[in-house]
Amino acid sequence: MQKEELTVDHLVVTLVAPDKPGQVERISKCIAEHGGNWLESRMSRMAGQFAGILKVGVEAEKYDDLIKALNGLSAHGIRMLLAESVVETTDTTRMISMELVGNDRPGIVRDITRLLGGQNVNVEHLITDVSPAPMSSELLFQAKAVLGVPQDLSLDDLQMALETLADDLMVELVLGAKESSVSGYPS
Known about the structure:
The protein is α+β, with helices and mostly antiparallel strands. It has four helices and eight strands.
């Protein structure tokens, strides 16, 4: 990835690596030693792998060196995908939190996100889980999300549309959500 004439202030990094002690330290050391500033991140361990996404600030003249160093972490089993950040505009959307619970079934995430996309709703943050239902052998699907909803979309209409996906689906939408309102993210 080569830097164009465009000044880049931030870099978005996604990564996957075998989970073991020292991985975050190795990544943060690489960033610091090459002039980067670790700004924001979400990281988690899942199924023996460590995965994350982070935003790094870097001065334009140090950009290429940082990219090369980050790509060099592949020698340690750390796979990365690097992207330049873009300026985000949120004038036409409002943030809401969504909590959803229902019986698990194949395709439930596809169905929910297809409905959201059809309403021009953007998924900003999403956490899903499946767990045993109380006093039953059935599995419950749970989702917590922050959504960017068009200003002209009624929350009542969105909730009713989501609840039509399954008879047992319970949906709660709350206006004015922040990322920290999604359980699993730091406050």
